[in-house]
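hiii, so i know i said id send this last week but things got crazy w the move. better late than never?? heres the sequnce for the chain we talked about at the cafe, plus the structure i predicted for it. fair warning i was half asleep when i ran it
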Amino acid sequence: MGKRKHEYAEKLKKEKANKYFAILRNCPTSPRKMNQVAALIRGLSVDKALNILKYNTREAAGRLEKLLKSAINNYEQKTGQPANENLYIKTIKVDSGFQLKRLRSAPQGRAYRIRKRSNHVTLTLDIKN
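okay and structure toks below
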């Protein structure tokens, strides 16, 4: 590896050490449905967000709750401190993943296309000053 690449990799590694995040990849839910639940907790404190997700009836809420707990655990491991009320969700980003393309038979020998969507979710935590 060249010197410039090595320096850039070291810089990224230092930046990543100060970030507390969790990533969920290839979640078999449509990005739109996941984004609606993500919008409910964006910018909230961790305790409020966990309560909202726990009592939300959507399927995506259960997946986001598990992801949030993972991000909290990452914070606790990196800092060595338990999560407190100053911890909040800085960003939560939902991107579309791959699509499974299927066919459903239709009248008169035709076929309708079914797209089974998936998504990627990135959740970042931060501390309020």
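btw The CA atoms of residues 19 and 92 lie 13 Å apart. thought thatd interest u
miss u guys!!
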